[in-house]
Amino acid sequence: MDDKDRFISAYREFRESVDLEKQAGLPDLNHLVWCLLAGMPNVPADEEDNADAPIKAIDQRVAILKAVFVEVNGHEDDSFLDEALSLYDEAAKLAKLLIEEAGEAA
For position 106, what pLDDT does the model report? Predict the structure, then answer.
């Protein structure tokens, strides 16, 4: 299975775990950062064994989380979705910064 297929599989697996009938408010930044660092949802980069894998995993997680968030909240207005997607981007930046700082401290 190639990377694209593994990513789509990870997306589908996560999507199936989400109640698409529930409405959600704006995501909590701290909770998002924790999820990204804790490895939720599982993504293909988690299985890679190279120095770039943790950063790649963050990007894959954010892509999946954003897609599912928009799917669940697609009925909301664009400003709400834009604000939420910005929170996902901010969480990714913070998670990557923490990963880089941890690497420097090691």
Answer: 61
